[in-house]
Write a structure and sequence with these properties.
By secondary structure, the chain is α+β, with helices and mostly antiparallel strands. It has 6 helices and 6 strands, in the order ααβββββαβααα.
Length: 164
């Protein structure tokens, strides 16, 4: 599979492209840049300036992100093609984020800059709508899973609900 096919397959299988048709995925793919990161020895740390306002989609490899969002520590591990990262930075807002991005092995990612997606608001507004809707759905799923894990851990620690 050549890199262009790999990019289209990655986008098509990511949460980002749910509801998009093949030609819409191709339009979206044309807005993205493919970055390759080669690890030589220890893990490679990525520069946040290059990634500013960019959504990351893992094509292949492994990335670990540790961040401090509004004084709260968060960890994210990307290892499956189509995994998304840097969503909060991508959508913007007044959120203070300090992130450390470590590439654990040779990795390829797609970067979608917010300004590039905004160019679709005139020419292809449905694509911009679906992408943003899919990001909201993805984040809702992350929060739901996190809340479930927190509740299960609380049940375990305090021996409530008779399941432990």
């Amino acid at each position: 599979m050549n890199s262009n096919e790999q990019v289209l397959t990655t986008i098509a299988h990511s949460k980002l492209a749910e509801g998009l048709r093949d030609y819409e995925i191709a339009v979206l793919a044309n807005l993205m840049t493919l970055q390759h990161y080669e690890v030589k020895g220890a893990a490679l740390e990525l520069d946040g300036v290059v990634l500013q306002d960019a959504l990351m989609i893992l094509v292949g490899g492994e990335i670990e992100i540790t961040a401090k969002v509004n004084h709260e520590h968060v960890a994210l591990h990307l290892d499956a093609p189509g995994d998304l990262a840097r969503i909060i930075s991508f959508v913007g807002g007044n959120v203070s984020i300090q992130a450390r991005i470590s590439v654990k092995r040779d990795t390829a990612v797609l970067l979608l800059k917010r300004a590039a997606l905004e160019t679709l608001l005139i020419s292809h507004p449905a694509i911009a709508y679906y992408v943003m809707r899919n990001l909201v759905r993805h984040m809702h799923g992350v929060v739901r899973r996190s809340n479930t894990e927190k509740e299960e851990m609380s049940n375990y620690l305090y021996c409530i609900h008779g399941r432990y």
